[in-house]
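QA checklist item 7 of 12: single-chain prediction sanity check.
[x] sequence parsed
[x] length recorded as 322
[x] structure emitted
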Amino acid sequence: MYIFFLVLAIISIGVTIIATIQRKAWWIRIFDFPRLQIIILQLFSGIGMAFFIESFTIVNIIIAALLLVTIFIQLKYVFPYFRFAKKDIPDCNKTKSAALSFMVSNVLQKNRQYRKLISIIKKEKPSILLLVETNHWWAEKLKQIDALYTYSVKHPLDNTYGMMLYSKFPLKNTRIDFLVKKNIPSIQTEVQVDNFKFKLACLHPEPPAPDEAKMSRPRDRELIKMAKKIREKPTPYVVIGDLNDVPWSDTSYKFERISGLKDPRRGRGFFNTFSAQIPLLRFALDHIFFSGHFEVAAMKRLPKIGSDHFPIFISCCIRYSP
């Protein structure tokens, strides 16, 4: 049994080291995602090795030391997302009520369970709703929610990058941008909430995967290009969407550092939204980033809708000043 746990330890050490390589190949960047799972594997293998060890050798000591070091490397990335960590965005003052709410959902283009999605929308009543992977079939089926939203921006596509935005608040200066590739849109708009206005960017960059993009470069370029755009004109800002990246990746940290936006997950939990079908392999891919003009009232992952993603929901208050 000791050999079994030793092999698991070596594997967990190996994938941790691979993830530190600053290359864009999908098979390297994919190890940015399961850091929490790797920590669990490391702890499991370490406990097993300690329980079944028969003698202390130089090799055993080296493996144990490497295992300990790589556990700390992984924890460095994911620690901010435990509930006992410091919150980047404060909770709403108890005297305030939530001013607006956001819901983001990757519907999965081939999914046909649209009634589940509509039921959740009617129950949660988000004031701003973003749906991605929406093609023309989805656009047709979702016409019945038009009555719930006065304003909308619809750009359905059949390439899994269609996008539809709904809002109960006025949208101004709206445009469809193609930040990196001409077939992958983003929505840029301004939202007017009473006397408060903020910019909203809706993104769904290409994922690093063998059947999508063999390199993470297109995704990273889109996120960093958006971050630099935000930095150029500091103003109340929200970025939402399926970013095909986890919040603890180097790219996401760079996005936050450049843009100045904050992640409401920090200090509140992981809220893993993908994969809805595989409980042991779940990561936080759907995001809502805020500038310092907002506070969080509530955040939750919503029930399954037949997609490979769970929807995510957040309600917030407006601070008016960072």
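[x] summary fact logged: The longest strand covers residues 186-193.
[ ] second reviewer sign-off
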